[in-house]
Amino acid sequence: MEKNRKKARAWLKSSTLTEYKAITTEAKLTPRQQDILDKIIISDYSQQKLAMEYHEDVSCIKRALRQIYDKVYLVLFK
Fold first, then answer.
1. Sequence-separated (6 or more) residues with CB below 8 Å from residue 58
2. Which 8-state DSSP code applies to residue 43?
3. In sequence order, what are the residues at sequence separation of 6 or more whose Cβ sits closer than 8 angstroms to the Cβ of residue 41?
4. Is 36:46 a contact under the CB 8 Å cutoff?
5. What is the mean pLDDT of each run of 10 residues along the chain (78 residues)?
């Protein structure tokens, strides 16, 4: 699974904004997931900074990112 998540993350980082928005819409991310992904990919937040902003532990952000990358991978490569 980790390999699939890396593929999804790499694709998102190298995509155009139009492609990024299309895939994330098709992946049916929740508003919270979309916000987390935007801040990680577009705004280049660290996981620690995001955890502080959400008042959560970093493990919660990591779990959310795993779920996000899994959803995106299914749209991209299945």
1. 47, 48, 51
2. S
3. 9, 12, 13, 20
4. no
5. 91 94 95 96 94 95 96 93
Residue 8's contacts (CB-CB under 8 Å, 6 or more residues apart) are 69, 70, 72, 73, 76, 77
User: What is the rounded end-to-end Cα distance, in angstroms, of the chain?
Assistant: 14
Query: pTM, whole model, 2 decimals?
Result: 0.90
Contact partners, residue 39, CB within 8 Å, separation at least 6: 45, 50, 53
Fill in the amino acid letter for 9.
Answer: R
Query: Do 5 and 68 meet the contact criterion of CB atoms below 8 Å apart?
Result: no
Listed in sequence order, the residues at least 6 apart from 48 whose beta carbon sits closer than 8 Å to its beta carbon are 58
